[in-house]
């Protein structure tokens, strides 16, 4: 999903279609709340459902500068709320999968919950 979004933005596509899953939908909704994706909608039902994302641009430049997956199938990365990484002054955030759902690293630190580090998002 992350690579598809990045590649689509590099060629200035307006929309991206992905296979639907609840996890992808919650990640897309989180990006939409931050203004990095314009719209999220579900097309179809069952196994053939698609997740349609409308990408956000500002002055013909993508709002998302970079997306990097942190936790991979071969090496899962988990962190307690006190061990959550910082962005180091760069604009962006880490996405953390917690027992309370997906949230950014700042919110997880405030609520004192840890979890799996999904990805880091760098914004313009």
What is the compact description of this entry?
The protein is of the alpha+beta class and 124 residues long. The protein has two domains: 1-63, Ribosomal Protein S8, Chain: A, domain 1 (2-Layer Sandwich), CATH 3.30.1370.30; 70-124, Dna Ligase, domain 1, CATH 3.30.1490. It has helices at residues 2-10, 22-33, 105-110; strands at 15-19, 37-43, 50-55, 57-58, 61-62, 64-69, 78-79, 92-98, 101-104, 115-123.
Describe this structure in words.
The protein is of the alpha+beta class. It folds into two domains: 1-63, Ribosomal Protein S8, Chain: A, domain 1; 70-124, Dna Ligase, domain 1. Helix content is 22%, strand content 40%. Strands 6, 7, 8, 9 and 10 form a five-stranded antiparallel beta sheet that branches. Strands 1-3-2 form a three-stranded antiparallel beta sheet, with helices on one face. The longest helix is centred in the first third of the chain and has 12 residues, at 22-33. It is globular and about 40 Å long. The mean pLDDT is 95.
């Amino acid at each position: 999903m992350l690579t598809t979004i990045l590649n689509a933005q590099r060629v200035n596509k307006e929309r991206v279609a992905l296979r639907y899953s609840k996890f992808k939908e919650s990640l897309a909704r989180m990006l939409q709340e931050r203004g990095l994706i314009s719209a999220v909608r579900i097309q179809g039902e069952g196994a053939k459902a698609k997740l349609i994302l409308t990408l956000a641009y500002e002055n013909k430049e993508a709002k998302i500068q970079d997306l990097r997956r942190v936790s991979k199938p071969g090496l899962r990365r988990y962190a307690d709320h006190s061990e959550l990484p910082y962005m180091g002054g760069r604009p962006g955030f880490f996405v953390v999968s917690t027992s309370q759902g997906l949230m950014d690293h700042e919110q997880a630190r405030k609520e004192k919950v840890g979890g799996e580090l999904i990805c880091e998002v760098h914004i313009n």
